[in-house]
Amino acid sequence: MNMHRTPRRRRSLPVLAAAATVAAALTGPPARATAPVAPAAPAAPSPGAPGLGDPLLPLDGNGGYTVRHYTLDFDWQAPRTPFAATATIRATATQALSRFDLDFAGNVLRSVTVDGRAATFRRDGDELVITPAAALADGRTFTVQAAYTADPTQVRHRDDAISDYGWIPTPDGTVLYPQPNGAKMVFPADDHPSLRAPFTFRVTTPPGLEAVANGRLADRTTAAGGRVRWTYESGQPVTPQYVQLAIGQFTFVDRTGPHGLPIRDAVPDALAAPTERYLKLTPDHVAWLEQRLGPYPFDRYGVLVGDTDLGVALETQGLALIPRADLLGTRVNAEANMVHELTHQWLGVSVALKSWSDLWLSEGHARYYERLHSEAHGGDSLATAMRQAYRRHDQWRHDAGAPAEPTEPDLFRKMRYDGSALVLYALREKVGDTAFERIERAWSTRCRGRAAGTQDFVDLVSQVSGQDLSEFLHPWLHGPTTPPMPGHPDWVVDPVAE
C-alpha cells in the first residue's frame, strides 16, 4: 500500500464549463415530458387459412392455430359398418380467429362445439369450416369437439405406388393407410407432413376383437355386454399421415430390442406362426440401423401385420404396417420391406418433411438402407441396384420429375424410391464412405423430432463434409438430365422414350 498521497488539484471553472458543454452536446437537451403512447389495438379477428399452401397439396393443413392434442373416441361395431365417433382437438390460436378450418372428408357430421358452445359449421370439399360462437383471441387455447358417424368403407385411389388409401378393410376389422392425406377420412385433422401432435385413442370393440394404435396401451376395461374399451397414448407427437388404428383378432408378441427397447407386434391370429420367423429379426434390424443412424428415435416399436391384399407397406409411427404377403415369401424380400419401414422411423417419421416436394428424403433414404442391408443379407449388391437405377434415371425424370421436383400425380413414383436412393449413392461416391456416414448420422440426430427439407439437407451436407456441395447436388435433385456418376465413368443412361 502506497502511503504517500499526491496533493489534489482544483479544476478551473472554464474546464468544468467546457466539460458540461461537451456532455450537453452528446446527450442533447433535457427530455421533454411526453404523453404516454397507447398500445396498438389488437388485430381484428379474421379467418384462418384453409391450407398451408404446400406447392403440391395446397389445402393440406390449415392456418391460424397449432394443434396441441387429439383425442379420438371410436365405438367400433363391425367391418364395413358405420359407427359413432368423436374427435376432440385442443389447439392454440396463432392469430385472432373469426373462423378456422379442419381437414375432413367423407363422414356424416352431427355436431361441432368450440369450448363447449355450439359452433356453426359447413363443408367445403375436404375442408370443414368452423365458426365459433365468439371469436378466438390470438394465443388462446381452445377445444374443438366434432361428433360424427365414421364410415370404415371410405377409401380413395392414387395411380402411383400408394394405390388405395384411407380405411383398409380386413376380414374381421380394419387397418389404416392414411398416407399421403387420408387421415381426413378417419378424423378431422390438421393434416400436413410437417405438423404433429400427441394422440389419445379410446376405442370400444365387440367381444373377441382387439384394438391396437400408436403408442402404449394405457388402459383396457370391459363394459356391460362384454364390449372392451382400449385406451392408447401415443406419448410422442404423431403426424396425421402416420396414425395407425387397427381392429381385429390379434396375437400380441412382445420382444426386446437394443437398450431394452419394447417391441410389440400385432399379428392376425392365423398369421402369427408363419410370420414369426421373420418378425423375430426386428431387434437385429434396429441394432443394424442404430449403428448407421444413431439411437432409435421413439420409445417403442412393433410391426402390425395387415391381413389385406394391400400392395404396399406404411411406416406408421412406432407400429409399421406390413401386408401379409411381404412376410410370407422369401427372407430377402421380407427383410427388405421390414428394414425399409423401420428406416422411416428415423427418416420420414422422426425427421419429418417440410413439404411434399421433400418426399425424396424419406423414400430415398428408406430405399438406400433397404438395399444396403439386402446386399449383406443375400440380396443384390447395392452397386448393381444403383447401376440399374442410373440407366432408367432420365426416363424417370421425364415421366415423374427430378427427385426434388415431383408433381402431385407422380409423387410416389419410382423416382422417389430407387431414383432418390441413387442421389444418396452419388453423394457417397463423391465424398467417400466415412464422410457420408457422418452426414447421415448428423442428419438423423440433429433434425430429430422436427421437420426438415431439401435445402436443410444440402446445407448440412456441405457443413459436415467441409466442402460446398450445393453445385454438385443441385443437378441431381432438380436438373432435367442425370449427371455423371462419380467414380463410374462407364455408367450410361438409357435414351428417353416419349
TrEMBL record:
Domain of life the protein comes from: Bacteria
Enzyme class: hydrolase
Enzyme Commission number, as recorded: 3.4.11.2
Listed GO biological process terms: proteolysis
Reactions listed under catalytic activity: Release of an N-terminal amino acid, Xaa-|-Yaa- from a peptide, amide or arylamide. Xaa is preferably Ala, but may be most amino acids including Pro (slow action). When a terminal hydrophobic residue is followed by a prolyl residue, the two may be released as an intact Xaa-Pro dipeptide
Co-factor(s): Zn(2+)
Signal peptide: 1-33
Domain Peptidase M1 membrane alanine aminopeptidase: 291-476
Keyword Zinc attributed: yes
Coiled coil: none
InterPro entries: Aminopeptidase_N-like_N_sf, Peptidase_M1, Peptidase_M1_aminopeptidases, Peptidase_M1_dom, Peptidase_M4/M1_CTD_sf, TAT_signal
Low complexity bias spans: 32-41
Annotated stretches, region: Disordered: 32-52
Family matches, as SUPFAM superfamilies: Leukotriene A4 hydrolase N-terminal domain, Metalloproteases ('zincins'), catalytic domain
Transmembrane regions listed in the UniProt entry: none
Molecular function per GO: alanyl aminopeptidase activity; metallopeptidase activity; zinc ion binding
Matches recorded under Pfam families: Peptidase_M1
Keyword tags: Hydrolase, Metal-binding, Metalloprotease, Protease, Signal, Zinc
PANTHER family, alphabetized: PROTEASE M1 ZINC METALLOPROTEASE
Entry similarity comment: Belongs to the peptidase M1 family.
Protein name: Aminopeptidase N
Organism placement in taxonomy: Bacteria, Bacillati, Actinomycetota, Actinomycetes, Kitasatosporales
